[in-house]
From TrEMBL:
It comes from the Eukaryota. The chain crosses the membrane at residues 228-255. Keywords: ATP-binding, Glycoprotein, Leucine-rich repeat, Membrane, Nucleotide-binding, Phosphoprotein, Repeat, Signal, Transmembrane, Transmembrane helix. It comes from Urochloa decumbens. One of its GO terms (cellular component) is membrane. The keyword Ribosomal protein does not apply. Residues 1-22 form the signal peptide. Residues 260-279 are annotated as: Disordered. It is a single-pass membrane protein. PROSITE patterns: PROTEIN_KINASE_DOM. This is Protein kinase domain-containing protein. InterPro entries: Kinase-like_dom_sf (IPR011009), Leu-rich_rpt (IPR001611), LRR_dom_sf (IPR032675), LRR_N_plant-typ (IPR013210), PRK1-6/SRF4-like (IPR046959), Prot_kinase_dom (IPR000719), Ser-Thr/Tyr_kinase_cat_dom (IPR001245).
Amino acid sequence: MPPPRLLLLLIPFLLLAPPAAPQPAPGSGSGAAPQEDDLRCLRGVKKELVDPDGRLSSWDFTNTSASVVCNYNGITCWNPQESRVISLSLSGFGLQGALPSSLQYCRAATTLDLSGNALSGPIPPALCDWVPFLVSLDLSSNALSGPLPAELANCRFLNSLKLAGNQLSGQIPASLARLDRLKSLDLSGNRLDGQIPPQLGANFGKDSFSGNSGLCGRPVSSRCGKGLGGAGLGIVIAAGVFGAAASLLLAYFFWRCTGKGKGGRRRQRRGGSESGGAAVEDGSWWAERLRAAHNRLAPVSLFQKPIVKVKLADLMAATQDFNTSHIVVAGSSRAGTAYRAVLRDGSALTVKRLHSCPLSEKAFRAEMGRIGQLRHPNIVPLLGFCVVEDERLLVYKHMESGALSTVMKKPGEAPLDWATRLRIAVGAARGLAWLHHGFQVPQIHQNLSSSAVLLDEDYEARITDVGLTRLVRMAPGEGGDTSPFLNGDFGEFGYVAPEYASNPVGTMKGDAYAFGVILFELVSGQEAAAVVTDVTGEGFKGTLVDWVNQLKASGRIGDVVDKPLRGKGHDKEIEEFLKVAFACTQPRPKERYSMYRAYHSLKGIGQGRDVSEQFDEFPLPYNKEDSDTM
């Protein structure tokens, strides 16, 4: 029906109304009072749980200042100035009841320890939507029941998952194998059954699965299923052979009649992504499909005409059928997995397989054509791509020295000297500034991190994954939920600008924030999401930006500088370098440096250090003015 006349009259005023002001970044205020959501979380936890021993009696909420709330029993906040709750450690409190739904208001928490209580009921499937940044989850020694939710795989930052000593039943979801950061797993002492997902069985020992009599497969047993006698085994083999032959014939006729059923397989792939995640990266089911003769002949589309044509078979041979031993760090692992490929002529490539691409083949090819035209000395060139059924493979020039994140923490190797770190910073700034200011419509990266800054053989910085979020983000209303960047969920933990919490739309200032975090990584030698503050490996409870700001507030800014850089005569340059990093990570976007300004500031620091080469053929004429809307 047509809209009411009043609504038609109001539309022009609605369109001209100024956009709502972005919410203040967490912690950007006075810090006198905790976040309302965090208070709501703690009030709800106390209300929903039975506390027979009175361990939560200090949570009286009569004084809700940060200094009081952050000292509640079992509560840790990010830092004295930052009132967000980072840890709920309520182990052994004797608490009773179901897992509180009010945990959804402690979204910034990275540790949840409710072990050694008397909690009952199922693990909520939405738990990882409530607290998406969990690094450690310990629900062991309770009375939790029901199945293990496959949605636990959405806690993608988990390093430790402990669910031992409960009454959990059913199979272990294959999707848990997608937790590529998981270092500790304990599912012992439950009622789980079925086969252990192969990738989990390969990564964790027998103790992680003990006390579950129904489990089978590696590492608790060599195989699943009971042995059969000679006659029974013969019957099973005969039935299997007959069934396989019949299935192959039916599949062949179906394939001939439906034109390979491309759309059906695409839907199956999207629908099965969640439950079949364990096999995604072990090079099994999807690589097996690519080995088919008609697929191996698929051409690799290259933007520059090659001397010899490259086919999918060449990429498969160069990666040993995408064997996991060829996996390298090259950009976001959430969007895709990168493999090092060495062709027969000795040339090295990086092949990135996208985990999910909701675009149609026509739209994908159009995006490839756009990204393939981006050529700059500090951008990793996209050389080509390959479309095989619903698989999308991107072919890049290989950067021999690897990702900055890997180079910075290589054990046993000499740390990078100051001149090299400064040159890397200037190069990355030059590339990102060109993306922002070299085009009338800026190219927003949206997923910048030290893993997306690659280094060539001369340690020159090159940015990868340019344009990738446009390939893997699902447009609203297209259906499906396999994109790792759905609903604005982009960026790696520790690099995400604070304004994205309330307005998840990629901006130039959001990229500038992530770049500032990389600058802090370069000068400190620390990681964005995990700061180690002493030789014992004790970690700071917060991100790198939190740690740096805390040291600055306490007058200890010199402690930020990596020890190998101290006392080498670079103090003045490092001081100016830190000023740029702080300017890029200001909480409010309008106070943050643009990449144009950041690049020229860093280039000025590098004058006389062979890091300030002029690239006049790559001018930066657009969007120079700092703007809160960029």
